Amino acid sequence: MKYTITGATGHLGSIVLQDMIKLVGANNIRAAVHTPAKATGLAEQGVEVVEIDYLDTDTMTTTFKGTDVLIYIPSKTYDVLQRVTEFENTLTAMKEADVNEIIFVSFYADQENNPFTMSAYYGYVPRRLAASGLNYAVIKNSLYADPLVPYLPELIERKNLIYPVGNEALSFIAQEDSAEAIAQLAVKPELRNNGQVYTVTQKQHYTMVELGKIMTEVTGKPIGYAPVSVAEFAEIYASDGDGAELGSMYQAGAMGLMDLVTDDFEKITGHDPISMIDFLTLHYHK
């Protein structure tokens, strides 16, 4: 079996790739990356490294040939039309390369009334796959817990979380857990070849007051909750380049659209995901 992973040098993709090496061996993995020269370390591990250009279907067709299962991790652009174009080109290249199986890595902010910038894209792909004739599964991530760790020093200084979600709760998953679930899906055809849709979350969701209490316990510093408005949040993080997009995501949270909790991670892997307190305790260093 040959497994091709897109975005294989990204934060999530690199973890998925290493998990796949453990499960099936490096010789059965193809890393599809934009800049192969930056992936020499993967080649040294025995992984086949190939170039991918989502806007060039001929190159993508060559990249996908011989693939049994495509693990599709989307690019990070917030341009909805570009993302749709990239995925349509992927489907075209899969057809030309005779690839019939795909795992699409998605996000749970995809409801019809969700104001998140990328909601339309995440809503579109499952419907597109349903009509594609492919064998597929969709795995939706909840919010990553990982960015909370480097965010803690700022929160300690502020003494408050400021996410504009009011009294609503948010669900999280650690990237390592997400990657494990994706890799397990890839090697378990009975879980992925019939249009299954999974959402991976921790065992519980958290209001911001509850999350602040956990952060206080882990850091030893008081962290409460003093929400700003969506507009204020977008302005505060505008210099990071994604303030408006993140603001729209937390606007969805304030509507109660991002609090889903499932046991899908356990169904896929056979064990519980890491809890929020254990995750922060493991990764936070005073």
UniProtKB/TrEMBL annotation:
<dbReference type="Pfam" id="PF05368">
    <property type="entry name" value="NmrA"/>
</dbReference>
<dbReference type="InterPro" id="IPR052718">
    <property type="entry name" value="NmrA-type_oxidoreductase"/>
</dbReference>
<dbReference type="InterPro" id="IPR008030">
    <property type="entry name" value="NmrA-like"/>
</dbReference>
<dbReference type="InterPro" id="IPR036291">
    <property type="entry name" value="NAD(P)-bd_dom_sf"/>
</dbReference>
<protein>
    <submittedName>
        <fullName>NAD(P)H-binding protein</fullName>
    </submittedName>
</protein>
<feature type="domain" description="NmrA-like">
    <location>
        <begin position="4"/>
        <end position="251"/>
    </location>
</feature>
